[in-house]
Amino acid sequence: MTTVEHNMSMFERYLTLWVGLCILAGIVLGAVVPDFANELNRMSIHVKGAPVVSIPIAICLFFMMYPIMVKIDFEEVVKAGKSIKPVSLTLIVNWAIKPFTMYVIAYLFLGILFRGFIGENALDYVKFPLGLDLPVGSEYGSGTVVLKDGTKMLAIPLWRSYLAGCILLGVAPCTAMVLVWGYLAKGNDGHTLVMVAINSLMMLLFYGLIGGFLLDISRIPVPWEALLLSIGVYVALPLISGYLSRKWIIAAKGEQWFEGKFLHWLTPVTIMALLITLVLLFSLKGKMILENPLTIFWIAIPLFIQTMFIFAITYFAAKAIRLSYEDAAPSALIGASNHFEVAIATAVMLFGLSSGAALATVVGVLIEVPLMLALVCFCKRTSHWFSK
């Protein structure tokens, strides 16, 4: 079994600070190099004349995902049978409740309460859906096909773009930082590792199905070719790479070297790749944020409410079915946190680096660390609620 790090690294502990600095760096980069977006699009794999996969971004996003996947020992999944109740609770919350409450809460705030603040007629220009060949002027979902800078784009209401990003966050259960949250809360490390492995496998089955369904009813339909490509590139590829390289490295160098050396070298890779991606993203969205500085605030409110709501129902459900605190705490923390790496990767693939959807997924990063640390403290203070 891969050991859980006992302490948060400097990158993890101050992640909110690093994200804030990346926002500033990205805005400055966008102001100093205004043609940066065009240069980035030139380094892309094009399909039918449209940039589909940005090569530098794809590299960054792979290195966000691979260090997470290589840490997972999938053989631990078989031990889940000994803990039916906590595993069942986590799966029900993550896949039968959380995606749908995220949609309802985000729609209520972004589509109704904050719509006037975001802009009734504000538009976002997102990537033209992969696999479609529609003429300029055609209607697709809530958007219209337009020609922007010589490239076909889809013009959709800005609030719907933010909603799409929230949906992608809500359908991605955490499989990385939750290892840290579970340890800090003095939870059951074995249960946490098992759930990380199971959720990684479940994402291959349900991420596209549930995400595609919710995007469709949000009138932001995404062709299945695009969803399958996104899942393949940003979930399956690092998952398979992590599994195979883990087996090869342990066979060649031993488990002690793998955990003591290799994983130690990988620790900062995910965060560094994430921060580079954020600089690139904000270099393209900086102007919009400066013109409407409350944008991040409007997006953060529904994400905050969703996190607290899912944590509460999971934590109290765990108490109702008489789980031990050691199983209840990580179950609730897994449900409350998001796999923002996958959400960012998918938003960039489906809608583009400069999209409002990608920006919404980044707001998830911005608020997650301080919020999850607060929930960890709450868990520790209420551990006496649960019977031994």
How far apart are the first and last residues' alpha carbons, in Å? 25 Å
**Computed Rg:** 20 Å
Approximately how much helix is present in the residues? 55-70%
Give the beta-strand count: 6
Strands in their spatial order, largest beta sheet: 3-6-5-4
CATH topology name, in short, is: Na+/H+ antiporter like fold
By DSSP (H or I, 4+ residues per run), the number of helices equals: 15
H-E string: HHHEEHHHEEEEHHHHHHHHH
β-strand percent reads: 5-15%
Q: Whole-number average pLDDT?
A: 83
Most strands sheet: 4 strands, antiparallel
Number of domains: 1
What does this structure look like?
The chain has 388 residues and is α+β, with helices and mostly antiparallel strands. It has a single domain, classed as Na+/H+ antiporter like fold. Helices cover 70% and strands 7% of the residues. It has helices spanning 10-13, 15-32, 36-42, 55-70, 84-113, 115-118, 158-170, 178-184, 189-217, 224-253, 255-291, 295-320, 325-336, 340-351, 356-381, and strands spanning 44-47, 50-54, 123-127, 139-140, 143-148, 151-157. It has a four-stranded antiparallel sheet with strand order 3-6-5-4. The protein has a two-stranded antiparallel sheet with strand order 1-2. Strand 1 (44-47) and strand 2 (50-54) form a beta hairpin. The longest helix is centred in the C-terminal third of the chain and has 37 residues, at 255-291.
